[in-house]
Design a protein that fits this description.
Blueprint (H helix, E strand, L loop, with lengths): L2 H10 L6 H7 L4 E5 L11 H18 L5 E7 L18 E6 L9 E9 L6 H8 L6 E4 L5 E5 L2 E5 L3 H10 L8
Antiparallel strand pairs: 1-7, 2-4, 2-5, 3-4, 5-6, 6-7
């Protein structure tokens, strides 16, 4: 098993690194925030993209920590061969975790990962690709296991415990999704 597999299983047992699956199973630690005001799903211009990236980097800096080691994780079918995330030139993700089929996962999926240092703005192109529904990728804090899982419309956050989720829900109440 790889280092990511060990860390992931420590925090999430056999759940796959997919935002939707984590949200479904960890409701007491999960928080969803919108990427744009009024729950607008897609950016319609430079101002929207600026807002989306501000929210993404704000949430990421809180969860992942500026300058901290984090894992960037994506399913093999989300990458360009051989393990490249085109939005982050030079970054190579390697096979790190395999999840077998279950009630929600139809086929065996290999997740690729790379350990990176979180820097505000360094992953903006990848975040925009997810927001535009062109890619699926998530980031996990290596030390805490907290996860930032962007999607087209917002960000699923998986936090260490309910009290932290509640505090961030209050802090970002204007960003919080009502569903």
């Amino acid at each position: 098993m790889t280092e990511l597999a060990d860390r992931w299983r420590h925090f999430y047992a056999n759940l796959p690194p997919q935002g939707a699956r984590l949200r479904k199973r960890l409701t007491d630690r999960w928080l969803r925030i919108h990427s744009l005001p009024d729950a607008k799903r897609f950016a319609e211009g430079p101002d929207d993209e600026t807002e989306l990236l501000m929210r993404a980097n704000t949430a990421a800096s809180v969860l992942l920590g500026e300058g901290n080691e984090v894992w960037v994780v994506a399913a093999s079918f989300e990458l360009e061969p051989p393990g490249q995330l085109p939005e982050v030139p030079g970054l190579m993700l390697t096979p790190a975790l395999t999840c077998e089929p279950d009630d929600d996962l139809e086929t065996r999926v290999v997740f690729h990962a790379a350990k990176v240092t979180w820097q505000d703005g360094a992953f903006d192109d990848a975040i925009v690709a997810v927001a535009e529904d062109r890619r699926r990728v998530l980031w996990m804090n290596d030390a805490t296991g907290e996860v930032l899982a962007p999607y087209d419309g917002g960000f699923d956050l998986v936090l260490t415990h309910r009290a932290r989720r509640d505090a961030l829900r209050e802090q970002w109440k204007s960003w919080v999704a009502t569903r």
